[in-house]
Amino acid sequence: VQLQASGGGLVQAGDSLRLSCAASGRTFGNYNMGWFRQAPGKVREFVAAISRSGSSAVYADHLQGRFTISRDNAKNTVTLQMYSLKPEDTAVYYCAADDYSEYVSRTEPRYGYWGQGTQVTVSS
């Protein structure tokens, strides 16, 4: 599967932003989907993930309540809606696909397919 993330940009603290990830090449519904992010000088971290059907989602504990993940299997897209953005949310955001795990995973090695990343910059 090929993944293309989009929607990043420069926003102010407190703004909202919606990231999208378009998938192509394989049956999208076969994959659990996740979002990860990497801030400058830091390791990549888990943000959110959603199950194949969209019935189950998990979030990084410190992000739950501000971020919402969703998917549309008919359109082969997964979306990350981000609210009340903070400067510490500044990072490159990556979407990823997992066709191995039975359940939604927070673990990066479970995801075998990655998009190119989209930059989100939050100014104070």
Strand and helix map with partners:
Blueprint: E1 2-6, E2 9-12, E3 17-24, E4 32-38, E5 45-50, E6 57-59, E7 67-72, E8 77-82, E9 91-98, E10 113-114, E11 118-123
State the main characteristics.
seven-stranded mixed beta sheet, mainly beta, 49% strand, 0% helix, 124 residues, globular, four-stranded antiparallel beta sheet
Question: How would you describe this protein?
Answer:
Helix content is 0%, strand content 49%. Strands 2, 4, 5, 6, 9, 10 and 11 form a seven-stranded mixed beta sheet that branches. It has strands at residues 2-6, 9-12, 17-24, 32-38, 45-50, 57-59, 67-72, 77-82, 91-98, 113-114, 118-123. A hairpin with a 4-residue loop joins strand 7 (67-72) and strand 8. The termini are far apart. The chain is globular and about 40 Å long. The chain is mostly beta strands.
User: Alpha-carbon distance between the termini?
Assistant: 37 Å
Spans where pLDDT lies below 50 across 5 or more residues: none
What profile does the largest beta sheet have?
Answer: 7 strands, mixed
Give the topology string: H per helix, E per strand. Answer: EEEEEEEEEEE
Radius of gyration, in Å, reads: 13 Å
In a few lines, what is going on in this structure?
The chain has 124 residues and is mainly beta.
